[in-house]
Every structure is written in C-alpha cells, then in structure tokens.
Amino acid sequence: MIRQQQTLVLSPYMALYDIVVPKDNMLRQINELVDFTFIYEELESKYCLDNGRDAIDPVRMFKYLLLKAIFELSDVDLVERSKYDMSYKYFLGMAPEDPVIHSSSLTKFRKLRLTDINLLDMLIGKTVELALKKDILKSTSIIVDATHTKARYNQKSPREILQDQARKLRKAVYSINETVKANMPTKNMNDALEDEIAYCEKLIAFIETESGIALVPKVLEPLNLLKETVEDDVEQLRLTADPDAKVGHKSADSAFFGYKTHLAMTEERIITAAVITTGEKNDGKQLQTLIEKSQATGMQVKTVIGDAAYSEKENLAYAKKNEMELVARLNPLITQGGRKKEDEFLFNKDAGMYVCKAGHLAIRKARQGKKGQGKNQQDTYYFDVEKCKHCPLKEGCYKEGAKTKTYSVTIKSEEHSEQMAFQETEEFKAKSKERYKIEAKNSELKHRHGYDVATTSGLLGMQLQGAMAIFAVNLKRILKIAE
Description:
Nucleotidyltransferase, domain 5
C-alpha cells in the first residue's frame, strides 16, 4: 500500500499548530471536512509498491495542487510559501521543521501520476457525496451554463510568447532599479525560437545573480513565470502554441481562443457536473451529459435552468421523456419568426393562404420536411410570379429574374409549442430568476481561482486545472453552508 510508505509525524513542535492555526482557518476546516485517503485508492496503480525509493506521499502532492488552485500561485511560489506558512504545513501533514519538496516534483506528479484518471468527475463526485452526507443538497434543480478559459499561449508564436514574458520581467526590474538597464543581456533580434530561448535564459541568470533584486515580489512573480515557461514548456513551445485550443464566440462580435467548461450547479451553488471542451463547442449539445453526470453523483434532477442555448428541440424532447422541466427560453427566431414586422405577409384564414403587401393571394402551398424528424416542418406559399414582375412594391420583395416567389412559415413542433406556453407561466419566470447564481460561480472561478487563463497547454491540462478549481470552490461552499 502507498500509505504504508509515509512515516508517522513525530515532532516536539507539533503543538505549535494549535497556537498558530486557529480552528476557523479554512485549511484546518478542509482537513477536518475531507477524508483524503481516497487519493491512495485512485493512484495505487500509478506507483511501484515493491521497488525503488519511497515516494512522496500522494495525498500531500494532491494537497499541494489543491493549495495552488485555492490561492492561485505558481509552482515555485507555492513551494516557497509552504516553507514558512504554518497553515500550509499543517494542511500538508508536515512537521513545522520538515523540508518542502522541489517545485519540479509537482510537474512530475501532474504528468506521471494524474494521467488516465478521470479526476474531474471523481473530485466533483466526492464533494457532492460530502454535501449529500451533510444534508446540504435539498433542491432538485440544476442550473447550467458554460464559461470560457483563454489558452495560456493564445494565438501567438512561441517566440512572441517568450518576448512578452521577458518584456514584463524587464519592466518590473526597471521600475525598481533602472540603472541595471545598461548591464542587461542584449535582446535577441533573430526570428529563431532557439535564440529567443537562449536570451531568456541569460536574462533569468542575470536577474538572479547580478541584479540584486530577484527576491522582490514585484520581480519574483514575472521571473518565476518566465522560468517555468522556459524550463517546463520549451518542448511544448516548439510544437505549437496550443494544439487543442480552438476559437469560440462569446457573442456575435466577440471571440476568444481557448476552452469551454460546461457546468451544472444546484441552487445551493454546489457544482454537480462539468464537461471541458475546446472553445468552439456548442453549449446546448452538452446538456444531456451534464444531467446524466449530475444524476451519477446521487443528485435527483427534476428541473434544469439555463439560457436559450439549451432550448434546442432535442433537449426539449429529452427533458419531456425523462419527466423534467427545462426552464430555458426558446430562441426568438422560433417564437417570433425571422422576418421583420414590415416584411411579414398576412394570413387570410378564409382562403387558407397568405396575402402579400400588394394584396396578392398565394396561388398554392406545399409542406416541406417530415413530421417528428429533425428540423421543424415548413409551409411554403407560392405567388404568381408574373404579378410580382410588375408589382410596384417589388423592390426588396421580388428578386429580378427569379422564376418563383415564395413565403415560408415554420410549423412549430409539439415540443416548441409546449415550451412557448410553459415560458409564459409564473413558475417558469420564478425559476429562471435562479440563473444568476451560476454566473456568479463562473466569476468566482475566474477571478479568485485563476480560471480565466489556462495554466498549461492542451485539453488534458485544462481538465486537471478544472478538476482542482471546482473541487476547491465546492469545498469552500460546503464549509460556508455548514457554518
């Protein structure tokens, strides 16, 4: 067993923790709340149990990554802080005098121990299980939404990435001591990535050994970021900016390059499911997966609350089949049609045909599409094209040379008709007001846990980042509710 490799902590200074880490400290509360031994079971196959040196306790390594997610620190700064922060050492299960790991161990742990493990679903499942055990989850509703995360390397070339980071580092140094500018290494002027890497290595060495200000926090953070990029990500930089990231759209005129995290959350603000995709993926297509993942954690789902992106016909049919309410407004194109008011033709109920703005009645109609299959059916009304050719109102209505003039009306499906009626009810309007909660949760992930930008490249790295960030916010929420 891996857990047998760890040694019992025997230190004359352990009583210090009772003095310097108060009972209301968040890390102490998390330690008391969560039994982290599940990490041993999940990672047992990743370790050799009868050969080689004893491994660093995997629970401790996992807790390092959790600290990184909670406090948004680089690997180097995280390890540095764990040298002197007693709440960190207590959380990590260390004696006050114990030495800390080297920051490179975290990189190895991520790459060697956490691959091929569905960490995202596992950690969300653990927190939901904990919330259910503490009788925190009482609602049967989930709120769904997607939040975007920009790729760490964006759409820049590897050389541009290094140039930007080196520029920020120089700027931080000059703001403290501008006299070092004369002794700085000469900037690289070539296009070769290898030359830019060599320049960055010289810059790092100069600031660490000759500038005398490497330990100033304002300089240390951009210095560590450049070092991590050069040391850990050079191979990735040579391959591509980010092979998995894709362009997605927040609105019609606003785009981003990166990933999407599709979330389901209860009304108590506990995240019950997440699906991490590349940036271009459609939000609505993830709904059924989010519902099924939420149910797999033990959550009972009777109501789903989302925006118009989730009200596509397939989702309405799925919700009806599974006896759920889908509180999501239909797209205005379905409820109002795609034509402007001034372009609309009028329906003559006696003739059963549409009349154009000039007063001409359609001469025939045809139905397109099959009922219950794919898209909604349409009724297409045909007008006498000879009249259209000589009509005084033909501009903007009849295209010169066209052989036909038609006007089509979408026949609303049973699902759409029922949803249109539902969204006018007081129940729908009341439940839809709960949607703001998930927008606030997205903001918390981005602004308090660094989820606005990916910390590594690749979808796998994004899934790991998502797993730790969501685990952290769920634990914090459980602590807050349990107070």
